[in-house]
Amino acid sequence: MNAIDQNRLLQMRAAIVSQNQALQRAAGLESQAPSSFTQSLSDAVQAVNAQQAKASEISAAYERGETHDIVSVMIERQKASLGFEATLQVRNKLLSAYRDIMNMPV
After folding, report:
1. CA–CA separation, 14 vs 89, rounded Å?
2. Is 13 part of a structural domain of the chain?
3. Which of 25, 32, 57, 83 has a 20 to 30 Å separation from 63 between CA atoms?
């Protein structure tokens, strides 16, 4: 087996980082602060919560007789259901990854 040349590896990393920065500048994304994983996850959960609240609101409006558009009610309920299921799957994957990491020998 060949030994890993640390200097070459650092040069490759620096090249990748500089290319990534160039792509971000070209896309106009450099001015935005990078979001943390926690913030991204929190934003996703808040979006799912907002979708569920919207679905509940439109369902209640239908039940009160304020709207007669059952199609939009069902679509909003399906969107909320899909968002919840996706969030649940992400949670399950994160828990599985956490368990795998915790069971790794040190």
Report:
1. 35
2. no
3. 83
